[in-house]
Structure formats: structure tokens, C-alpha cells
Write a structure and sequence with these properties.
Elements: E1 4-9, E2 12-17, H1 23-40, E3 44-48, H2 57-68, E4 75-80, H3 83-92, E5 100-104, H4 107-115
Parallel strand pairs: 2-3, 3-4, 4-5
Antiparallel strand pairs: 1-2
Length: 116
Amino acid sequence: MERLWVEAVGGVVIARIRGEPTEDLLEACQERVLDLLRRTGCKSVLYDALELDPPPLDVVWKQRQLDESTSPGRRRAILVADARIAYLSRIAFAGDESNTRVFYNDLVAAVNWLRA
């Protein structure tokens, strides 16, 4: 089973990681997301973490470091299954809180917010 899936769908870049993420997997994800944002002109990213296993804190901090190294201004929705992943997501994507929102199991609301 593929652990990383990144694709542009309907003006939104969707990134999904399954299982427990590693720093290398996060770097590959970030690279593919940024490439698609550049090539498609999309301004929004949906991070689908429904099948994500809770990562160790060093991996969470790696995502935060990767996120801080990119330009702000794009909207990000993070789709989570539980409070633990939501909490870790808020730590990982804390740089631009006005453009980032966590959604609990509600794909429709996440996409609607990204497109609003």
C-alpha cells in the first residue's frame, strides 16, 4: 500500500500520508505539495491525516520546520480522525494559524472552507 499520495483535485492540492510518518516521508510530501502548487497555481492544500498514526514529536517538529521554510498565504485544511492527531497537527502547522484549520472527519466542510 502506498504511504504517500499527493494530487491536485478541483483547484486543491490533496496530500495523504498513511501510517506513521518519518522525516523522509514528510520531506517527500512537502516537495510534492510545493511542486504541485507551483505547477497548478492552486492556493489551497488539504492534508488528509485520517489514516495517519501518531508520529513521535521529533517528526512533528520536522513538519513545523518544513512548513516555516515555505511562503505563507495559502489556506490549509487538515482532516483528522481524533483529538490526538488534531493536537499534533496544530503543533506541526502553527506558523500561519489564520490560514490553517483542523477538521474532524468532515471532508466536505474542509473542502468548502478551502474554496471559500
